[in-house]
Description:
Blueprint: E1 2-10, E2 13-21, H1 32-46, E3 54-59, H2 62-81, E4 83-85, H3 99-115, E5 127-131, E6 137-141
Parallel strand pairs: 2-3, 4-5
Antiparallel strand pairs: 1-2, 5-6
Helix pairs in contact: 2-3
Amino acid sequence: INAKYEISTDDRGLDISLNGEGVAFLIGYRGETLYSMQSVLSSVASKGQEDRIRVILDVEGYKAKREKTLEDLAEKMATRVVKTRKSVSFGHPFEAIDEKKIQQVKSVAQGFMHETNLKYKNCRIDGVSVLLSNPPKIEHLKNIF
């Protein structure tokens, strides 16, 4: 392993960035190894301190890449799930939300909640149907799945 690191500090804690050949394995599956190491480093840095010291660990810019991937996927899913139709002759807009789209939205939501540390908070996914009839009809269903 040929790694280089940078450490910066601010009033919130430490930011550690690792880069170099052979360090990508430290990321693990969907960042699990990275987040585990971050937790251990934070515990070690906080030992003997009154307040917990926040340590943010990043390897090869993984967090920025993962955030960009999640944003792109969320944008793609939003354009797929929100459905607008001019009439119901091809079915109600909600009928376009099939099992595959439901699983994709759930996956994006879980990834987003994990990346933003919201995994223990309540979350709901709503559906919006726009029917461009005269007059237009908008339906909002809360907690559709």
